[in-house]
Every structure is written in C-alpha cells, then in structure tokens.
Write a structure and sequence with these properties.
With 290 residues, the protein is an alpha/beta fold. The protein is built from 6 helices and 18 strands.
Length: 290
C-alpha cells in the first residue's frame, strides 16, 4: 500500500469538491493517506474521522501531494529537504508552473501514481552561505534568492563577484538569482529568460537597473556568486523563495548550487512545454475576441 502525504496551506470552499474527489479516488486505489496537521485542522469537517496527520515526513511517505499553487510547493520543499520524497502539485491556484497537475485530472493523476505511469524530474536548489546567521532552518531556495531595497525609494548598489572575480556593481532596486525552476517566477516578471527545468544554470537578473544596458545573465550552476550591498539606509531585504531576512552593508552573501535536489513527479501528458504554451498563451491570437 502506497503512502500519500497531503500538504496544503489554505483552501477555498469552492475547491472542496476536488478535495472530495481526491479522498474518494485515493480510497478506491488503496492509498494510505495522511494530512499535514495544520491543514487538516483547517478542513477537519471535510475529512473522515481519525484521519492520520503529520508534522514532518519521518514516516517516509511514497509521495507528497500538494494542494494549492506554486507557493505551496515552495513551502513543501522545506518539509521534503534532502529526503528524496517526490512532490506532485495539484494546482488550486492560478498560474501553476510547478503545481502543473490541473484539479480536473485528479483522478487520472492518482491512477498514474498508483500504476507507476510517471517519471521523476530533479530540480536544483540554491544554497546560501553568509558571514552571519541567516535562514538557519533551511538556507536553500527552489525558486530564487533576491536582494532588494527596503524602507526607501532610493536605489541600492549590489557589488557582485563570480567565482572570486568582480562581475559588476548593480545600481538597481535589487537583483534576483534564480534557478531554472524559478525562471518562470519573479525573474520572468523582470524580463529574465525562461530556462528548461533541468538546465544546469542560474539566472542573475537586475530589478529596475539604473543602467539600461545591464541585462540578465545566464550562469553555469557550478558557479559561486558573492554579493555585498550598500545604499542610503542601513537595512536591506534578502529573500529565499517566500521567506525573508534583514541584512546590512556588513553582510556578505555567497550563493551556490545545493548538494541535493527536489524530485518532482512528471505525468506523461503534462509537459513543461505544454504548460508554457497554455499558461503564457503562446500562439493564441486574441485580437478578434472580446
């Protein structure tokens, strides 16, 4: 019997019918379900009595299934860590590049899991090292790391070094260092390129740079990237995915590829290219439609 851990953060009442489909299909296929405890407390009336719950993944489920959007998967990565437990994301959100299994195919997705009709895709992470304690619980990012200004409209200066050699001083609102997974996130909003998920690269993208000839840069993921910051204020923000810490001009940050990956379940009919075409509406001519 396969163990399936269910992780979520919040759920709209309109999504309850899909939760019921998940419960009934999982029961029919013989999955052993367990729900993330804070999530189970939120939806307790929708669950059978005495449904098993968890806080960590020490019980070693076969899969972690997330209910939500891409942000839900980013938070779930903190539970998975380096355990190798595969994640499959059911998209209850909007765009859904990571959570790319649409809610209308929940039954089919569970059937494919049960039949072994899937593959695993390894997603690289960033690792942050600093000269002071930062993100001690989980100094890793599946999507991106950002350095941005705080409490002022003035731009900041981010001095950047690549493998020990000076690269550039970015006069900007901040910078983004994104993984291939994160290339479709904040990086894309700032005109950075999209990378295939298994590319061996990072992307360094300035946020609203003062110099218009400064452009995003694709780097080998074997690189080490160092940052220091200066500006008119003392404090700045450093983020790893959705988490943040305050840093100062005395902080020195080093980013490199993490020594482990996150495994994502890849169903046969759900591809990254198909997701891009659908979510970004590539090839659609909407000029003659109201």
């Amino acid at each position: 019997m396969k163990k399936l851990a269910i992780y979520g953060q919040q759920i709209d009442r309109k999504q309850y019918p899909y939760l019921k489909v998940l419960l009934s299909e999982a029961e029919a296929l013989g999955f052993e379900l367990s729900f993330y405890r804070p999530f189970s407390e939120m939806i307790a009336k929708q669950l059978p009595e005495c449904m098993p719950t968890f806080i960590d993944l020490s019980f070693r489920p076969d899969f972690l299934l997330t209910l939500g959007g891409d942000g839900t998967i980013l938070n779930a990565a903190r539970l998975v860590r380096d355990s190798g437990i595969p994640i499959m994301g059911i998209n209850l959100g909007r765009l859904g590049f990571l959570a790319n299994v649409e809610k209308k195919i929940i039954s089919e997705a569970l059937s494919q899991l049960n039949d072994g009709n899937y593959s695993l895709e390894e997603r690289s992470l960033l690792q942050l090292d600093a000269n002071e304690p930062l993100f001690e619980d989980f100094p890793y990012a599946l999507n991106d790391m950002t350095l941005v200004k705080r409490d002022t409209s003035s731009m900041i200066v981010i001095h950047t070094y690549l493998d020990g050699e000076f690269l550039n001083s970015y006069w900007a609102d901040g910078v983004i260092l994104a993984t291939p997974t994160g290339s479709t996130g904040y990086n894309l909003s700032c005109s950075g390129p999209i990378l295939m998920p298994t590319s061996s690269n990072f992307i360094l993208t300035p946020i609203a740079p003062h110099n218009l000839n400064v452009r995003p840069l694709v780097l080998p993921d074997r690189s080490k990237i160092e940052f220091t910051i200066e500006g008119r204020t003392e404090n700045f923000l450093c983020t790893l995915d959705s988490r943040y810490e305050t840093v100062t001009n005395a902080t020195r940050l080093t980013l490199s590829k993490a020594p482990f990956c996150i495994s994502m379940v890849k169903l046969k009919e759900v591809t990254f290219l198909g997701t891009m075409r659908e979510k970004l509406m590539w090839g659609r001519d909407t000029r003659n439609f109201k």
